[in-house]
């Protein structure tokens, strides 16, 4: 019965996130627009050469995805902190790591998944081959949830602070670098006709580690910041 109630609470959290999006859709749309604009400007700034763009495309798309994720992290816990919902979550008898995981999953569904959906069109614009595009989609499918879970730790540590954006960036960017390296390496290996499963396997191992440990780190950070 308790597990059924926990599932219902997690479902309510997901539903609450969707309702917030309907009330202020710009919070979700802005990172996606930013992602598209950043990638679209590169051909104008560098060169329209298909060969050059295909070489730069993995790094360009991955850096844009990373920055878009950073842009959406501020709203992960801040709104709940402002309206008192976060304090109520800390007082519930349900395990906070599970509730935090539900929040992060909802964040990924609203910010990470749209980036994956848009990425094939941007890959086509940057002259990526079909094989490289498949590798890009797979790497983003594994890497963007990892970015959300890692970023949620920093978001929890800085919740309630004024002008926390710069501090959040400084805390999270060093942790994002391995994800960026293996994500771009997978796409570049696919472009050179080399196997890229190993790069995806490393990303998958990091994702499993994040799914296991990050919820506890997020819960501890929230308790520290809200003094519970």
How many helix segments?
9
DSSP E strands, number: 0
Share of helical residues: over 70%
> What is the N-to-C order of secondary-structure elements (H for helix, E for strand)?
HHHHHHHHH
Stretches where pLDDT is under 50 for at least 5 consecutive residues are none
Strand content: under 5%
Mean pLDDT: 84
Distance between the termini: 27 Å
Structural class per helix/strand content? mainly alpha
Q: What gross morphology would you assign?
A: elongated
Number of separate domains? 1
Q: Characterize the main sheet.
A: none
Cα Rg: 18 Å
Overall description:
This protein is an all-alpha fold. The protein has one domain. It is 86% helix and 0% strand. It has helices at 2-23, 26-45, 50-73, 75-83, 85-91, 96-125, 130-157, 165-191, 197-226. Helix 2 (26-45) runs parallel beside helix 6 and helix 3 runs antiparallel to helix 8.
